[in-house]
Amino acid sequence: MEIKIRNLSVRYGTTKVLENINLDIHSKSFLGITGPNGGGKTTLLKTILGLKQPYEGEILKRKGLRIGYVPQHSSFDCKFPINVTEVVSMGNFGKRMKMFAFHKKSNECCIKKILKELNLYEVKNRHIGELSGGQLQRVLIARALCLNPDILILDEPTSSLDTDTRKDIFDILEKLSILKSIIVVSHEKNMLKKYADRVVCISKTIYFDTFDRITS
Ligand SMILES: Nc1ncnc2c1ncn2[C@@H]1O[C@H](COP(=O)(O)OP(=O)(O)OP(=O)(O)O)[C@@H](O)[C@H]1O
User: Has the keyword ATP-binding been applied to this entry (predicted)?
Assistant: First the structure.
């Protein structure tokens, strides 16, 4: 078990946003989270990441657990003068906290491998503002993979992408879930049904839960 969420409630001020959430995140599983706008999905991710504190209950994480986070690609500033390799390399800063960490040989090899795996090697020197939505999403996934996380958390990774590109992103996530746990917030219910082991619907609390192909 990677994460246990027990009786979790979260508030903004006096407003209850999440109430009595109980959820287990298993190793090498694919969890889909869906639900209406404002239902608390992003708040749940932020609480798992430690960016928001529980009001009640707790989130228990396995000791040494590494979590990677992929924010919505629309939140990334594409005007910033930086290329694909530089953005992916930013994922290493958390580990070494040194500006030039990515010049080290081992990091260079690791970044090259990730760029190739995510089919980004051909565009490695391209300015970030010159990428398609799908390429940018893959860059953000690559950046999160730099620290070799045990869990990869993604917030609406396919919003505003076309159908084929959405499928590409979910195919990548499915491959990654062989070695890591994946948690995806998405409104794409059909994609979640097809790819996830488990899908939970959240509107303040979990009101719908499927355990189709759960692995432990
Ligand atoms: N920093 C904040 N301060 C106060 N209220 C907030 C804050 N962030 C979110 N909220 C409120 O908490 C509720 C849940 O928001 P959240 O972003 O978690 O929902 P969501 O399910 O991810 O929505 P969406 O599908 O629209 O992205 C909403 O009513 C939102 O307005």
Answer: yes
Q: Is 10 in the pocket of ligand 1 (CB under 6 A)?
A: no
Is residue 20 within 8 A of residue 205, CB to CB? The reply is yes
Residue 160 domain boundaries = 1-65+150-166+179-216
Tell me: do 38 and 49 sit in the same domain: yes
Instruction: Give nearest CA residue, ligand 1 atom 28.
Output: 38
* Whether the Cβ atoms of residue 140 and residue 74 lie closer than 8 Å to each other: no
Distance from Cα 207 to the centre of ligand 1, integer Å: 18
Query: Mean pLDDT across the chain, nearest whole number?
Result: 88
Does one domain contain both 95 and 61? no
Quick one: average pLDDT of 199-208? 88
Q: What is the pLDDT averaged over residues 96-116? A: 67
Closest CA to 169 of 149, 192, 150, 151: 192
**Ligand 1 within 6 A of 38 CB?**
yes
In a domain, 70, yes or no: no
Q: How far apart are CA 21 and CA 176, in angstroms?
A: 26
Q: Is the CB of 72 under 6 A from ligand 1?
A: no
pLDDT tens readout for residues 137-168: 999 999 999 989 999 999 999 988 999 999 99
> Residue 123 and residue 105: Cα distance in Å, rounded?
21
